[in-house]
Sequence to fold (202 residues):
Amino acid sequence: MTSPSWADRHARFYGTRLGQRVLAAEVGLVLGNLPESGTVASLGCGVGAHEAEMARRRPGLRIIGLDPDPDMLRAVPAALPRTLGDAAALPFRDGALDAAVFVTSLEFMDRPDLALAEVARALRAGGVAIALAINPRSEWGRERLGGRAPPWDDADALGGALGGALGGPHSATHALCIDGDRAWPEAGPEEAVLLVAWATKG
Fold:
């Protein structure tokens, strides 16, 4: 018997009670910083769970999912635009995007610096980038990162990386506490499972 693929694991998690709560919280964090309308690229979209919910809750947005894994993209809901690609070489022309989103994907990329540089190129002036990244200081984060060390260890460092790449104002915070099958938005720097950062292209 073969083990479930990453796509299967992701789809199963978001079908659980905890997964639904995490999904709702993460989508809320992203939508709180997105425009009401425009073109958004979700980079490392996986099975498209967040993107489908964002599109449902904010129909004025055109959300395009991008992922390097064809198995993931096959699981994306049919109504959601998606493309196979690498965030370090985005298939968008200069200034084509109103926003770009990373939902727990930037920290798993081999060259997050190149991904951020590509986002800066593809965003219009005044466009926004939002990153939700796993907090390496939390127990949840250490388990899911599996020894991987992202180039930032707190929200301020992640915010600085986004702001430095985009050349505009930025902000950052910690969010989302998970305890067993419960999840709630507020959390301190050690308990938060997410680092949340957003920046505007100058």
Remarks:
- The beta strands are 38-43, 61-67, 82-84, 97-103, 123-134, 170-175, 177-179, 182-184, 194-200.
- The domain at 6-200 is CATH 3.40.50.150 (Rossmann fold).
- The mean pLDDT is 92.
